[in-house]
Amino acid sequence: MNHIPRPLLDECVMVCLDNILIYSKALDEHIRHLRQVFKILWKEQFYAKLSKSEFSLNQVPFLEHVISARDVNMDPKKIEAMKQWKQP
Known about the structure:
Layout: E1 13-16, E2 19-22, H1 27-43, E3 59-62, E4 65-68, E5 72-74, H2 76-83
C-alpha cells in the first residue's frame, strides 16, 4: 500500500498496512490533500470504504496512539488497560 500514495508520503500522508492517515494544517489544505489521495487511489483502482473513514478530525487514534496537531500520546484506553494488568 505504501507505493500507492508515494508522492505524498511524509508530505501529508502516513500509511500502515491498509490504514491511510492524511494530515494537514488547515481545512482548505486538507480538502486539497484528500482530493490528491483519492485521485491516486482511484487511478490505482483502490477504494476507501466510507463507513470506515473519518474526515477533518482534530485528533485521531492511530497505531495505539492519539495524534493531534500538538502532540502524539499513547491511547488513554491502552494505558488504562495496562494499569489493570495483574503483576506476575
